[in-house]
Structures
1.
Amino acid sequence: MGSTHSTKKNILYPHPIVETEYGLIEGMNVLIPKDSQKRIAKVFLGLPFAAPPLGNLRFEQQVIIIQKFAGC
């Protein structure tokens, strides 16, 4: 947060798609800013790993989510 650098222009196509035991996940190829070697990172955002800590789950151990992804 607070970054003034826009990553939108650093997103490259095609997007990587990875098959896992829980389904397909689509990510982004992102050109790493200010990298003299112009390397690319494969980025996957929004992957659920635990139930949100709401209600009775607040201040308790995480409840790991094991379910199929909605897919690409």
2.
Amino acid sequence: MEAATSTSTFAIGSLFRDRPRLLSLPSKSLLSVPVAHDRPRVGKKAISHRGRRVGFPVVKACVSPDPPQAGSAAQIAPLQLQSPIGLFLSQILTIHPHLLPAAIDQQLEQLQTQRHAEEPPASAATHDIVLYRRIAEVKENERRRALEEILYAMVVQRFMDANVGLIPAVGPPSGDPYGRVDTWPQDDEKLERLHSSEAGEMIQNHLALILGNRIGESASVAQISKVRVGQVYAASVMYGYFLKRVDERFQLEKTVKVLPAPADGDAMATHEGEEWDSPSNAAVHPEISSMPAGPAGVTPWESRLGIKPSRLRTYVMSFDGETLQRLATIRSKEAVGLIERHTDALFGRPQTVITPQGTVDTTKDELITISFGGLKRLVLEAVTFGSFLWDVEAYVDSRYHFVMN
């Protein structure tokens, strides 16, 4: 029996446009799409990507509890690595994934040696120095691409260790009676367990901001702009990067007990013995302070979306604007480039055409059919990807310095 359809507002926050480097807090709904209610839930379905030229070839055991079988492979990441180092690491992940950390350390040591060897000699003539600099620029671009793919290999391994496969490239649906693209496994619980309890509260608020009142309607289906979904995914990666950064700082200050105790009668009071940062007299980010605040720093608009107060949220809102901007900045060009490449591999490179009138031509924008449960899975993966990216960027920088701030 066909499900009845109606039109409702799908609240995807305008987290950013054209993928800026700074995290932008959303302030309004973005899309209005027709939603099909109460359609039957299609069962979970494992996806095989044999023969496709996208993504990492990795042993099947990395995404299933079965023992590893030589030669059995599945695609669990949409980005195709291209540099010599990236191709080498892809082979390591296929054959001996447990050797990846040692292989990465070796590659980073070689990159460091090459960087020192390319410094021009002090006795070089002026015209030779120009040539040396040009060669160094080319080599530096090659190293930047290699660093991006080292970071990507490490992020992929983190997902493999968690027994979670990355969503494959989003393409035309196959085998789904409703034309849905989200036929991937729903690993929501596995992804949620990878974050601290405080970060988990923030992630739930992030989901509420994106999905709005549809957050509990996993089986409902909508047609949504593929470009918009890609923007939300990339912005959620940036949000996960930011969230991991502030959560590490929060957990450290909580451990050493430097967070002030909550004020008396505060709705955010915690269990006896726990401490947190009080929001009283604290500077609030301008995008939040521009709206009338309700209890515990949650605005009426946010409260209607289901956003709840949390200790980590209050801690973040206590930062001044300059600190918040610094913490919300992706620290390296390599990480920014990796987010763009991964998103393009997942959703395709958007074809943006500016009309003579200065507007954006959306006629080539593809609509995809996806359930709200599938959207939730996409966002959870993106936030986790950003969290892993923060971790691996710090690790690589400790062995090969490339982070500028």
3.
Amino acid sequence: MSAKRQSKSKANGVSRKRNKIVEDEPPVLSEEDDDDDRRSDDDDVDELAEDNTSLRVKGPDHIGVVLLTGGTNWDLNGRKSMPKGCKSVGRNLYEPHLFGPLKDNRIRLVVSSCNSSHTIFITEEGKALSLGRNEKGQLGVKDLLRRDIPTPIEGLPDHAIVNAATGRGHTLLLTDRGAVYSCGDNKNSQCGVKSKEPVVTTAMRVKYNGPPIVKVGCGAEFSILLDCKGTLYSFGLPEYGQLGHNTNGEYIERAGAINFATVKLPKPIITFVEKTKNKVEILPKPEIRDFACGTNHTVAIDDHKKAYSWGFGGYGRLGHSEPKDELQPRLIKYFDVQRSGVKHVACGPAFSIAINEFGAVYLFGQMSSRGEANMYPKPVQDLHGWNLRSIGTCSIGLVAAADDSCIVWGSGTSSGELGLGELKKSSAKPCEMKKLDGLYVEQVTCGSAHTFLLARDLSEDDKDIIASMPEYKPVVA
């Protein structure tokens, strides 16, 4: 919750609590009925797999070696001080290091987010490993202990894992059959499972029986799914309209206390709108091709390369020239006026990035507390001419793989996540990460205060550059 909203709540003498009622709550079942229902769910998944024996969700083609820069004290990352009972283990890495625990492994995908202090690794064989903070069970390893060494996630099926997403305290995992599993913080129903427990410590299948899912995404306390037919589904906390269901779920529980009705199961987002000063027009339901989640907002692209955004609107992160929250997907008119379609989007805590079909990069929102707030998409001239292929967003900025280099941009207190060295920890303008000169980075992902990079190691030159890097060997907490 923003400071602005907190002060407003206090001024009104209202306490804003969460998670007292649940939207779409299934009927109460006896233990026997619940077991039968669970078996039925599993049968549905098996039938779906049998009906689509030739259908597989495809993950990335690239494979590489994992590099790390930034904070490695997972319990401290993104916080001002260590929580009680946690050991202060780990140090800040101010330049890229070879990640020792996985130096002999072939990794296909690394996943974290600007809200997360944990990371998911997907191996060449489709196995999922987890690392980092685990106080909400987000690592899926049956306990709440942090992991400094990547550890296999418990409860997953034999099917290959092809993608994943991380929130502040929860994780989603996507199989090649289009099924989704989740673990971690479920206080606001962001795991989308039938369990009423606030914490899910092993991966459980999300309660969903529709068309196969092809992409998953997480905000801080909400989740988004995209199916193969272009329909989005959301569940979790709706406080700022981030679920796109035309409500923030707010209700008065009693005098002086406001709560939010969370959405427990995946619910389709069906209404998309275009707004002008005088009217709101409901648009034909688009076929969504891609999306990205920030802390409390989402930006999506349809098959005509139109962009939509919804959720928390502070600092202009939705690109509508106003800071209002949007409770349902709203067309970003700027790109229509420019007559340029959007081919890729990325979201940070309070900003969004869009790349149009000509390769131009646009920023809307506020990248750091010291920076300017762009109320609508503005081109980033310093990135003109760069071919950005992978973008990771952290709490202070972004890291992007581009051509044969890596671009970083951000200012503020840094733990080394920009990889610029100990003397220059941040940059107010986009610049190259000099330590990676000559190395082709396939993919980038950022957490709240750390960055993982997946580097190509096919040529002898690639291997020589990687071999010259310092190796990070974690101290086990």
4.
Amino acid sequence: MDEERDAIALWVAREILPCERSVRLWLARRWRGVVDVDDVIQEAYCRLSSLNSVAHITNPPAYFRRTVHAVATDAARQTYGKKVIPMTEFDFSNVLDEGPSADRAIAASQELGRVHALLSKMSETCRRVIVLRRIEGLSQKETASRLGVSEHVVENHIARGLKRMLNEIAEQDGPQIDEEDRLIGTPRSH
């Protein structure tokens, strides 16, 4: 039995430890603020050490990542399960909805439609750079890698694309602002 434990420990050192850093980074990015990364990694190692054999594992890094994902899911379920507060119907009627109001949701939807319309006027590369950087939240380096271009190209497309969008929004809003000033009346300087 001790020989099998030693074999598993050697297997973990040889196959799992080299990929721990990348799994930690993935876990921190994917489960940001939901689970404690160190606790999840520790529990994953505990689960690996409790195995009777590792002979059935053909892809150790994938197995480790899947184990970490399962541990993180379990931890998230436990965390969210603890936050359930029993309430009566009367208590529930006094709960404030912290979500956006209907008019804010409609306004946000309209603004999103406006952004999509502006993006559709841009080149494919510029549009993809803006979507990857600003909407999906990738870094400049990740965006460049995904698109197969240099970071300098990403930087230029972001700068030009956002400038173009802001100019077009200002042009679209310009007449509306002038009309509002005319209706309301501009304050006189004394």
